[in-house]
Amino acid sequence: MTTVGLLGAGGIAGAHIAGWLQLGVDVVVHSLRGAPELVARHGGRLATSLDDLLASCDVVDVCTPTYTHRAMVEAAAAAGCDVVCEKPLALTVEDTEAMIRACEEAGVTLYPAHVVRFFPEYTALHDAVAGGTLGTVAVQRYDRQGGLPVSPWFHDEKLSGGIVMDLMLHDIDFARWNGGPVASLRAVRSAPDPSGTVAAQVVLTHASGSVSSIGGIWSARPVDFRTRFEVAGTGGVLRHDSATNPATWTNGGAAAGADGYAPKVAALGESPYLTELREFLAALRGGPQPRVSAADGLEAVRLAEAAQRSLALDTVVTLEEAR
Amino acid sequence: MKVALMSFAHTHALGYARLLAAMPDVELLTSDPDSATRPAGESGGAALAAELGVDYVATYDELLAWGPDAVVVCSENTRHRTHVEAAAAAGAAVLCEKPLATSVADATAMVAACEAAGVPLMVAFPVRFSPAFADLRDQYQAGTLGRVHAITGTNNGQVPAARAWFTDPTLAGGGAMTDHTVHLVDMVDTLLGGVPAVRVHATANKLLHPDSAVETAGIVTVTYADGTNLTIDCSWSRPASHSIWGGLTLSVVSDAGLIDVDPFAARVSGWSQIEANELSLGYGPNLDETLLATFLDAVRTGSTPQPDGHVGIRTTAIVEAAYRSWHEGRTVEVALAGRPASAVV
Hints:
The structure holds two protein chains of two kinds. By secondary structure, chain A is of the alpha/beta class. Chain A folds into two domains: about 5-115, NAD(P)-binding Rossmann-like Domain (Rossmann fold, 3-Layer(aba) Sandwich); about 115-270 and about 295-320, Dihydrodipicolinate Reductase, domain 2 (2-Layer Sandwich), CATH 3.30.360. Chain A has helices spanning about 10-20, 35-40, 50-55, 70-80, 95-105, 120-130, 155-160, 160-180, 270-285, 295-315, 320, and strands at about 5, 25-30, 45, 60, 80-85, 110-115, 135-145, 180-190, 200-205, 210-220, 225-235, 235-240, 315-320. A seven-stranded mixed sheet of chain A has the order 12-11-7-10-9-8-13. A six-stranded parallel sheet of chain A has the order 3-2-1-4-5-6, with helices on both faces. In chain A, helix 4 runs parallel beside helix 5 and helix 8 crosses helix 10. By secondary structure, chain B is an alpha/beta fold. Chain B has two domains: about 1-125, NAD(P)-binding Rossmann-like Domain (Rossmann fold); about 125-345, 2-Layer Sandwich (Dihydrodipicolinate Reductase, domain 2). Chain B has helices spanning about 10-20, 45-50, 60-65, 80-90, 105-115, 130-140, 170, 175-180, 180-190, 285-300, 310-330, 340-345, and strands at about 1-5, 25-30, 55, 70-75, 95, 120-125, 150-155, 195-205, 215-225, 230-235, 245-255, 255-260, 265-270, 275-280, 330-335, 335, 340. A seven-stranded mixed sheet of chain B has the order 12-11-7-10-9-8-15. In chain B, strands 3-2-1-4-5-6 form a six-stranded parallel sheet, with helices on both faces. In chain B, helix 4 (about 80-90) runs parallel beside helix 5 (about 105-115), helix 5 packs antiparallel against helix 11 and helix 9 crosses helix 11 (about 310-330). The interface of A and B includes residues 139, 203, 217, 221 and 314 of A. Chain B: InterPro entries: Gfo/Idh/MocA-like_OxRdtase_N, Gfo/Idh/MocA_Oxidoreductases, GFO_IDH_MocA-like_dom, NAD(P)-bd_dom_sf.
């Protein structure tokens, strides 16, 4: 039986442990905080220490804060474990390349948990693009809006990378998946506000000439989590808005923003986190390559890092410069 | 009141002609001499006037000699300056189809010509008259929304097919960035109360229509002097076979919430068995009618209608900067003639 060692017990760990347990694997958890509560809520068992966890598992699932990813992945690789790592893989290209190198040298596999690629509406869009339904893609638009992250480390750019690296990396990765390599980009962001509200926009010009506009919002005002996209090509246009396509809508339900930081997945039929982990597990057991690779994770970090540079310098950044 | 309509080149002329012809206190006279230069099969001239049931003369000289109180200019974009200057010289108030001009130099000259002639100049930006948008602006200016952190907008449509000049750079000045950036920058101009734009970035392509001589898709980002960023998708990305031409949306990140305004959402929708197509019954005020009424009221009362020629200069400056940014692959400063951006911050 496969044993998965889950590192971290925050929000994303809850989604992952539920997925792993549904896949019937043995789960052992270690975290500086919250591990007993996580196991009590979902199941699995507790490791006594990081070393205990690394010694007893086949796969390590890194769900710790971003700034710890490199150390956790390198420890997992050194212990000979395959690795699933929450996005972003790391805060910098340098760290991400070091993680990939450590895994290669240890002969273990590294998968980045870019879960948006597994959300069914995004999968439907990508399949249509890949299958030629939209012809040549010319314009992609993505929006992702939610409440402020709860854990304080998200608000420290040095620890989380801020909204571009943490939130918008999803759509940056997805736009690159559909639109191909990026030639240049430019990013803008709202001025710092005491409330914590931040809105940013990243505009990609792909090597194909197609363009992508990616918006991200962390709102201090309580809001429901919402995503939308529109992609236009020579063959037509596809769009989706989670606010106007809800499978369930409750008028007078819970106050907006009560859990407005993350998408609600219960009404999707299967949690995209489960879909994602099943695909990773099958690949680790010799099945087909999953739809996202460590190289994709590296390119997403490279683009987000370039966007941070564009913000800092208020310039267009070409990806030849960033490489 | 005597109102002259110069040119049927812009397809909005047809709607204006119908609305003006229906106004009881308006005498309408039209002229469309350049129709002879249009490709075969495009409507225009005396035949179109007859179809619309409006009076027609063969030349602009005759049209202006008629002594109109007001002139509506609906010619090709790069001909706006000549026609606006002629109308001003004839002493008529001017409503010019958007964009006012295709260069800041032309727009500035047009404003100067109208000021010298003592006639008002208004630019046809009807979407700012949408009740949904007006309500947003009123709320923001009353302080109800708190701070605006960011704005995004979409103005997508089909590639203009009824008139070839829209995709002819010598007549249109450009493609989707020329056609579909200005409505949203006009709306943000009035929303923010005239805060000047200082920097622009743009990227564009013609992947949807590779044979086009102009760009057919683009993303334009405008940074205003107060730090607000506006990102616009100006693409002609609506499939040509679509049942609805396109639309415009404006999204605002505010302290009071994340607000989406869709002026064209006021419609009853369904499906027609007979047409085998979507049914879409728009309701609410006709924005072109509100635009014309605002213009004609100003002519009657001698006041300055908004959006005026200075809004036209500011919107033209943003589009001009967008092309410079796209061609140079960098973020550029917005140059306002005689008024550097830094001086008005």
